[in-house]
Amino acid sequence: MAHAAAPAARPSFFGDFVSGWSWSLRKPLLVTVMVAAALLNFGVNGVEYAIQLHLMQFNTDATLIGAIGSGIAAMMLVGAFAAARLSDRVPVGVCICVSFVFLCACVAPMLFAYGPGVSDGASYALVFVANSVMGLPFPIIDALLLGFVYAKAPTSMQGRIAVSLIVPAQALSAFSSASAGTLLPVLGFRGTIAVFLAALALSTVIVLCSARIRRIPRVDGWDTAEL
Known about the structure:
By secondary structure, this protein is mainly alpha-helical. About 75% of the residues lie in helices and about 0% in strands. It has nine helices and no strands.
């Protein structure tokens, strides 16, 4: 009498967790992306919280505070359209490096807002424009850099890589709101922005110093590229 084959044992969560991290940590490019993404998220979220808390502190109209988020969301939508075209036309590594530098260039003008001799209206306009434009490269970084990582990773590692990339970034950014709230009373708006800009600058330096990231080719050359 024939017996049905016993179902294959499913791997445990702990086994998947360990194997995913073990595989990711052996890939220098992934380690670089983890560190750079964590610092990037911390810096960007910190800037957002610093702006909102600063505006709330001075009883700014709620519509103006809400417009800050609307501006960056609109530019992220523009960046999403741009990302699809850029991947086929420019080397991904170069585009990623330019995107990180661009983010720093967007935040830097905020250092001149809400200072001596600068009116609140002019400061708000400066912050609104700079913060909005900052949203442009986010979809480009996600689509190109993460697109390359997922394209080169084995199918069995797709979900595990997502965890190893997202968890460190989210873990550090969880402290951005507390950091902004702590720094604002001590350093003021410009000093707080300078701290988060330093985090963004460090993430940019890490990316620029990574030869593996700089050398990522266009999409049509990914077959010969390595993680």
